[in-house]
Amino acid sequence: MADRYVKLPSSLSVPPLVYAGMQLNGLSAIQSCIFTKEHKGSMFLEEHLLLFMKRGTYHIQHGKLNYTVRENEMILLNKSILIDYHKKGNEDNIFESLMFFLKDEFIVDFMKMSNTQVKRCNEKMIPVVKPVKERLLRFFDSLFPYFTETEKIDDELIKLKMLQLLYDISGTDKNLLQQILQLKKQAYSDLARVMEDNFMNPLVLADFAYLSGRSLASFKRDFFAIYNTSPALWIKEKRLTKAKELLLNTSMSVTDVCYSTGFENTAHFAKIFKEFFGFSPSQITKQTTDSAKALSA
Q1: Which residues form the HTH araC/xylS-type domain (predicted)?
Q2: CATH of domain 191-296
Q3: Which of 65, 134, 158, 198 is such that its CA lies 20 to 30 A from the CA of 263?
Q4: Whole-number mean pLDDT of the chain?
């Protein structure tokens, strides 16, 4: 599991994910990432993320949703979600971004300081890629020198820079500010949506509970109330059904289907597949191959 995804921001100090960063007593973090080639992976967002692209492109997939953040664009993502990413450098193979991780407590502090109210909104925030205006571009550019001298910067200066970020957003994009302020209300995620978006990912029950914003006990209780079965049985059935669909309708090998549907051992996959359906995965692939040969004859 550890090499399948990382949790951010707690894993940001692990190469090759990042080269420099600033953090304020765990309250919030700013991170600069520079790459010279393409990089793909998956990650949990432990905190809300405001991502700004300086150079290159950042493709993000969350469930069925896809976003591409290009140079001088940004996106806001709420915490407790799992995303797949594809980072790609520009024509000079340079990738550079700023990531701002915002804790709920910091957002609340800003609201008190600025006397800002959250507008009533019953709809869940949908991420939108936005162009960055000149005022914010200048702010982002002003941060890059700090990443080379993080040990010389005290906490109060970092806090001031983070507050400046929210004030600048307040002055340039009221809608984005309201989205940030509403984030603190959205930690308790839609459990059914979490399951449908992530059942094919190689996660354990504790990870699903984390994604839904619940303790493991609360997750199991709420899951049973919705599905009238255990999470383990539901996930197993969903993965096996999807695996059968892929074997019947694609040219993927048994091994590829095994790993793409969240299983991590081909022998175990073949065993439980046969127990569930009454025939093995290889029997399906043989039947599909024979049918294709007969049609082409």
Answers
A1: 189-287
A2: 1.10.10.60
A3: 65
A4: 82
Q: Tell me if the bond preceding 16 is cis, omega within 30° of 0.
A: yes
Q: If DSSP codes are grouped into helix, strand and coil, which group holds residue 43?
A: strand
Instruction: Find all residues with CB under 8 Å of 76, minimum gap 6, and list them.
Output: 48, 49, 50, 51, 125, 127, 128, 176, 179, 180, 183
Q: Name beta bridge partners: 67.
A: 60
Relative to beta strand 6-8, strand 39-45 is: parallel
Extents of the domains making up the chain = 6-185, 191-296
Q: Under a CB-based contact definition with an 8 Å cutoff, are residues 97 and 30 in contact? A: no
Question: Which tokens go with 144?
Answer: 């890059």
pLDDT tens digits along 7-63: 777 776 555 444 456 665 545 566 666 666 788 888 888 888 999 999 999 999 987
